Amino acid sequence: KVVCMFREPRQRIISHWYWSLKMDETEYTSDGFEHFARCFSAMATLMILGIPGVTYRTCVREAFESIDRVEAKRIVEVRVRQFGFIGLTDHWALSVCLFHAMFGGECLAAEFDQLRKGSNRATSGYNVTEFGLDEYDSMDNDTYRVAEEVFWDRVTEHGVHRDACRQRICPKAADAFEPLA
Fold first, then answer.
1. Which has the closest alpha carbon to 77: 107, 106, 49?
2. 53: left (phi > 0), else alpha (psi -120 to 50), else beta?
3. How far apart, in whole angstroms, are the C-alpha atoms of residue 3 and residue 103?
4. DSSP single-letter state for residue 31
5. CB atoms within 10 A of CB 20
6. Which of 7, 30, 35, 92 has the fewest CB atoms lying closer than 10 Å?
7. What separation in angstroms does the CA of 134 have from each of 68, 124, 127?
8. 19: helix, coil or strand?
9. How far apart are the C-alpha atoms of 162 and 180, rounded to whole Å?
10. In which region does residue 107 sit, left (phi positive, over 0), alpha (psi from -120 to 50) or beta (all else)?
11. CA-CA distance, 99 to 130, in Å (whole number)?
């Protein structure tokens, strides 16, 4: 089974941009953010479709321009629904809890740590307007919508919510599920 964490596509693009700048990957960043965003806009979808050579270092623009978006969406929806586990990075703690609700095992506090804090990281996410991504349309948006639907369906199916996580599923990591103020 496939285990996958999905990130909101606009947030992923901005984070990838900052990472590429940090790593001085000028072959990707020298033409500016707009070009970069087009290059990497369908990366998750193309990986799920199994397009050869697609990695976090591949400008995938040419690969997705030749793909029928309707057919790609259909294939991706079928495949994503077959994944053994889907989590959402914007709901990290709930995703970890869902994983344990589905597969068992003890939740460890370390599973909730932020291990890769970016230097430009914003707690509530990057400002997509600042990057001109308000109307961002990508095949990855379609893929993310399917992943969100599957995630929330499974959260409901497995009875995962803050109290269940804190008290029953992840009691040794209860601090990750403090009640909302």
1. 49
2. left
3. 11
4. T
5. 18
6. 30
7. 24, 16, 9
8. helix
9. 9
10. beta
11. 34
Structure tokens at 53: 């050579």
* Residue positions counted in the chain: 181
Q: In DSSP terms, which residues pair with 6 in a beta bridge?
A: 88
CA dist., res. 173 & res. 181, Å (int): 19
Distance CA 146, CA 137 (A): 15
Identify the H or E element spanning 85: strand 85-88
Query: What global pTM score does this model have?
Result: 0.88
DSSP result, 113-178: S-----TT--TT---TTTTT-TT---HHHHHHHHHHHHHHHHHHHTT--HHHIIIII-GGGGGGGP
Q: How far is CA 29 from CA 5, 33, 34, 36, 47, in A?
A: 25, 7, 10, 6, 22
